[in-house]
Specification:
The protein is an alpha+beta fold. The protein is about 45% helix and about 20% strand. The strands form 3 sheets. Strands 4-3-6-5 form a 4-stranded antiparallel sheet. Strands 8-7-10-9 form a 4-stranded antiparallel sheet, with helices on one face. Strands 2-1-11 form a 3-stranded antiparallel sheet. The chain starts with 8 loop residues before the first helix and ends with a strand.
């Protein structure tokens, strides 16, 4: 009996196999102190663990120069995390192991796998669970600090909310954009070249297949990094003026070159487009089934054979017949999925399909998969609530305040690089 497929791990898992010049180190090397941040150390081991986690996420490093650039970036990331956790302690904020493990479990659930499977996947790629837990703890600590210290000073008035909604209504039918953003801060002229090189490397890796959201979580210096760089839906007039020109001319699904702004570099992508106050396609619910096929040496010939076979699918009862004809390694139901929860490439492949239609073959990890829509419930048109608008405006303002807060912590810290 064909087992029921109950995960989207092959589609949603953002971690990919790592490779590159991560160098072997002796025990003495990994215990070497690299930096001291207000009397707390960062060791070579800490750097090695984070680099392995990042290369597992963003893909291989090609050259020694890229390795050196990433190492500098990782040191700065770890310094910032030390400062964030230290500030949480200063503000009497405690992050428990239970909270950290809960966030880890949420990361696993986001990929429709268990926490144990997530740990196993990390181990398989040579990345440790401890490295991601340390990052999670720093992220939680900073969220609490920002909420405790900055959010009380936010004041989004009813007038601002009303003006935003009036603007939406006056722009009804105009284009609206779902933007992904990564921001790399340049805090001093000395970091200009290094940050530019990092931005260029990240763009290349995203274009070569690294998941934009995963890169944003690891590298972005603004609050949207915590949600994979997702800004939500923004009409053209409300797009950050620094990046608006690039966003408006960027084809959907593509990533921009690094965009230099006053305080750093942006990397942006347009994940989706729609019309203002139209139905949100991300809210569409689809019932999916999949056919999983083992790749062959002749990928082009296999692709043509798969497309010929799946074109005969008229309804989902045809799937077992087609799967058998293709010698599928597996097939079954993925259940009901919200389009907005799928990675952008998969979202785009499915969004316009009707019941009984199949995607083109999708390369996911070590498999080739075809997804078939077996049920579909399109979203309804609705206006955003006042609370949603207030939350959107608050997060925009909070992101800027948090960046200034961290900059001040860096300025006041005693940081000794060894």
């Amino acid at each position: 009996m064909t087992r029921r497929i109950n995960t989207l791990a092959g589609i949603l898992l953002v971690l990919a196999s790592a490779a590159g010049p991560v160098q072997a180190q002796s025990r003495g090397d990994v215990q070497r102190i690299v930096a001291v941040v207000n009397d707390e150390i960062i060791s070579e081991y800490d750097i090695k663990e984070r680099m392995q986690l990042i290369t597992s996420t963003t893909g291989a490093l090609r050259t020694q120069e890229e390795y050196d650039q990433l190492r500098k970036t990782v040191i700065q990331l770890l310094v910032d995390e030390k400062l964030q956790v230290q500030e949480a302690k200063e503000q009497k904020i405690t992050i428990t192991d239970e909270e950290v493990n809960q966030r880890f479990n949420e990361l696993a659930a986001r990929n429709n796998i268990s926490a144990e499977q997530f740990s196993q996947e990390l181990a398989r790629m040579g990345a440790s669970k401890e490295a991601i837990l340390a990052q999670v703890k720093a992220g939680l600590a900073w969220e609490e600090v920002v909420n405790a210290r900055l959010r009380p000073f936010l004041a989004i008035g009813e007038g601002e909310v009303s003006a935003y909604l009036d603007n939406l209504k006056s722009n009804k039918g105009q284009p609206e954009y779902r933007i992904g953003e990564i921001f790399l801060a340049v805090d001093s002229p000395e970091k200009e070249a290094e940050t530019r090189q990092t931005a260029e490397r990240l763009v290349r890796q995203i274009r070569e297949g690294a998941e934009f959201s995963a890169v944003a979580r690891q590298f972005s210096d603004i609050a949207t990094g915590a949600v994979g760089g997702d800004t939500g839906w923004v009409i053209g007039d409300h797009i950050n003026p620094d990046i608006r020109t690039e966003v408006l001319k960027l084809p959907e699904g593509q990533v921009s070159d690094p965009i230099r702004v006053t305080s750093g570099y942006y990397i942006v992508t347009v994940a989706d487009k729609r019309e203002v106050l139209s139905a949100d396609p991300d809210e569409t619910q689809v019932d999916l089934q999949q056919i999983v096929i083992t790749p062959t040496a002749d990928a082009d010939a296999q692709r043509q054979r798969i497309m010929a076979a799946t074109s005969t699918i008229k309804e989902c009862s045809d799937i077992p017949r087609v799967a058998a004809a293709l010698g599928a390694s597996d097939q079954g139901s993925l259940g009901t999925v919200r389009l907005g929860d799928l990675p952008p490439p998969v979202n785009r492949a499915i969004r316009n399909l009707q019941i009984g239609q199949a995607t083109e073959p999708l390369k996911t990890g070590t498999d080739v998969r075809v997804l078939v829509v077996c049920g579909r419930k399109d979203a309804e048109v609705r206006e955003p609530t006042a609370a949603e608008i207030e939350d959107f405006l608050s997060n925009q303002r909070l992101s800027m305040m948090a960046r200034r807060y961290l900059r001040d912590l860096r300025r006041d810290a005693i940081i000794d690089y060894k």
